[in-house]
Specification:
3 helices, flat, alpha+beta, 2 strands, two-stranded parallel sheet
Length: 86
């Protein structure tokens, strides 16, 4: 197992939330795409993200996995959202 974005961000959030429950509001992670389909299948596996977030008490609606940074423009952060409106 390798620790990259989901695992590292989850561990950081868990640490920060231990000091201040409001320290982390949203976590956004960019999906790995376009370089190696075999590795991408492992790195982008939804179960991987589920495992990474399992012990950090951050609600799922405060995390967002995106492919294109322009997706973040559609999120109403000022309105308290961490995911684009559907």
């Amino acid at each position: 197992m390798y620790a990259q974005d989901p695992e590292t961000y989850s561990a950081s959030a868990r640490l920060l939330l231990g000091y201040n429950p409001k320290a982390v509001y949203c976590i956004w992670i960019r999906k790995v795409v376009g370089y190696n389909k075999k590795k991408e299948a492992v790195q982008n596996d939804p179960a991987r993200f589920t495992r990474a977030w399992a012990n950090n008490n951050i609600p799922v609606d405060r995390t967002y996995i995106f492919s294109d940074a322009s997706e973040l423009d559609k999120i109403d952060v000022a309105g308290g959202k961490c995911q684009p409106s559907t």
